[in-house]
TrEMBL record:
A Pfam family this chain is assigned to: HD_assoc
Family: Belongs to the dGTPase family. Type 2 subfamily.
HD domain mapped to chain residues: 76-228
Listed InterPro entries: dGTPase (IPR006261), dGTPase-like (IPR050135), dNTPase_2 (IPR023023), HD/PDEase_dom (IPR003607), HD_domain (IPR006674), PHydrolase_assoc_dom (IPR026875)
Name assigned to this protein: Deoxyguanosinetriphosphate triphosphohydrolase-like protein
């Protein structure tokens, strides 16, 4: 194939850090337009996918029904675009192919169902008979099977048919359920049993033990940076957080408790988390009040830029200190994020958790969402293929057994936007 043969055109070959195997596709196909690299094609395929567009209808943290005049809160799509910008720049600084990292960042949330992590928990219960549900495993399923783009041998869809390197970079948890290398009880995993063939193919050159490629590590850190910084920004815009609250001892104690329980490494003490937050509060650019004026908006935007630069530069310096100045790609290095930097990121996640996600109205909303998705799954299970989109109806009818049919129903629900889930629920129930 053209994209694997020429180091100048394809980004592969001796001295580039990417070999022919990295640019292979699950199903070989000719290049439609010479001059693009294999990885540029990957980025374009993700960017033009329907799955990416659907993220515009999936809530990130703050519900999108903001009053006129407020900045529009982020959706899963805008988060993915911002993550991709951070990842592309950070990856390029290390000598990664920027198109691989950008494509992985754009793809990292594709498998999220309606209503985010709340919906993920419902679908995991629904899908228990067919192996469970995990958004990261669903992302691989979309990229390699469900997203209509290329049909391979035997007329079977192979999804976007991305290269091995890009699929690997988009795989945040490269192990099946229960296969975490150090924590078998971890709920995080990246592949369902019936997607193991393509998973084994994309991981064929990976070292043992569940090691992630370097580009995947850059994607993961870019995701962390994007959502901890922008969730804070959205919380301030929506009026859910007053900067002065971060000086209140009771508020701080709750934030540190949440950070220690949900985000920080095990055994992290409150004093260490307090030091992390205080380092941020001491910066000249930290927003000390927010009233929605143009000056306050500009200062807040500067603070988000400062935070992103702080977190990325810290990781870049620490990684370079360990691995040197050369290009860092695939399995040749590991991203190094200093503990102090990780804790600063973790404490910001906890700030958004306490002030945005734990609001009483949000818990009432999540309760309604769980009931809606549970009822929708029951209705589709009882009446399918009625209610299934044209893409999923034939898959349901061709499924070999009850587990396979249930997986199609779960695939259908996971593909819905928040609004589409409500509309389908109203129609079927």
């Amino acid at each position: 194939m053209r994209e694997t043969a020429d180091a100048r055109e394809g980004g592969t070959g001796p001295g580039t850090g990417y070999g022919a195997a990295d640019a292979e596709r699950w199903d070989p196909e000719p290049d439609k337009r010479p001059g693009r690299t294999a990885f540029q094609r990957d980025r374009a395929r993700v960017q033009h996918s329907a799955a990416l567009r659907r993220l515009a209808g999936k809530t990130q943290v703050v519900a999108p029904e903001a009053p006129v005049g407020e900045a529009a809160p982020r959706t899963r799509l805008t988060h993915s675009l911002e993550c991709a910008q951070i990842g592309r720049d950070l990856g390029a600084a290390f000598g990664c192919d920027p198109d691989i990292v950008e494509a992985a960042c754009l793809a990292h949330d594709l498998g999220h169902p309606p209503f985010g992590h709340n919906g993920e928990r419902v679908l995991d219960r629904v899908a228990e008979p067919c192996g469970g549900f995990e958004a990261n495993a669903q992302s691989l399923r979309l990229l390699s099977r469900l997203e209509p783009k290329h049909f391979g041998r035997g007329g079977r869809s192979v999804g976007l048919n991305l290269t091995r390197a890009t699929l690997d970079a988009a795989t945040k948890y490269p192990w099946p359920r229960g296969g975490h290398p150090t924590d078998p009880g971890s709920p995080k995993y990246g592949v369902y049993p019936d997607d193991l063939p393509v998973f084994s193919w994309l991981r064929q050159d990976a070292p043992p033990g569940g090691a992630r490629c370097f580009e995947s590590q850059v994607m993961d850190w870019s995701d962390d940076v994007a959502y901890c910084v922008h969730d804070l920004e959205d919380g301030l815009h929506a009026g859910h957080l007053a900067p002065a609250a971060l000086a209140s001892p009771p508020e701080r104690a709750e934030i540190f408790a949440v950070a220690a329980r949900r985000y920080a490494p095990p055994g992290t003490e409150a004093d260490e988390l307090a030091a992390a937050l205080d380092r941020l509060l001491a910066q000249d650019w930290w927003p000390r009040h927010f009233d929605g004026t143009a000056l306050a908006l500009a200062r807040l935007k500067d603070a988000t830029s400062q935070l992103i630069g702080r977190f990325c530069l810290s990781a870049e310096r620490a990684t370079r200190a360990r691995h040197g100045p050369g290009p860092l790609r695939r399995y040749a290095a590991g991203l190094v994020v200093p503990r102090e930097t990780r804790l600063e990121c973790d404490v910001l996640k906890a700030v958004a958790d306490v002030h945005v996600m734990q609001r009483p109205d949000q818990e009432r909303l999540r309760t309604r969402q769980r009931a809606l998705l549970t009822e929708l799954a029951e209705a589709l299970t009882a009446r399918a293929p009625e209610g299934l989109d044209a893409q999923f109806g034939p898959l349901f009818e061709a499924a070999e057994d009850e587990a396979a049919r249930l997986r199609v129903i779960v695939d259908q629900i996971a593909a819905l936007t928040d609004g589409a889930a409500r509309a389908l629920h109203a129609r079927l129930t």
